[in-house]
Design brief:
183 residues, mainly alpha, 7 helices, flat
Length: 183
Amino acid sequence: MSALFSTVSGMRTGYDRDEVEDFFDHARQAYEGRTAEPLSHADIQVSTFDLVRGGYDTHEVDAALDRLEAAFIARQRAEYVAAHGQEAWMAALADRARTMYGRLGRPDGEKFAPAERGEQGYDTDDVDALCDRLVAYFDRQEPLTSGEIRSATFGRAKGSDGYAEGSVDRFFARAIEVLLGVE
């Protein structure tokens, strides 16, 4: 059997090949409806693999996970639209987007909980700037893609100069889901 992805040299670390292959095999079976074990786009978002020497190239696997998540959301959309109609799908997405507005409306520097004292977090200015882009997308239909959110990087900051990473990551994962739903 040929490898699913390129491997890195034995001196570098990549994702554990067996774990990646098992995950993608399960994902294929779930997508095709050949397994009783469901898999959702949220499961794909939180998937992790051990790092091992000579493993699969992490960038290739991560890009494939992004495509897989988009495929699962596209299928979810198609099934929902077939059952309830396009208008209902867009209304459901609008409802999800509205749940984000509470946080987006907070003042800069206060949108998320601060990082714990002495702990690293995401730079508040960087995160707030991406939040501003989301507001512009929702309010003024300014261009923004799920890929831009997914590839966004934030500077590091300590303690109250940074936001706690977990809540920021969860928030932008939801934003990605909303944007994928209309792309």
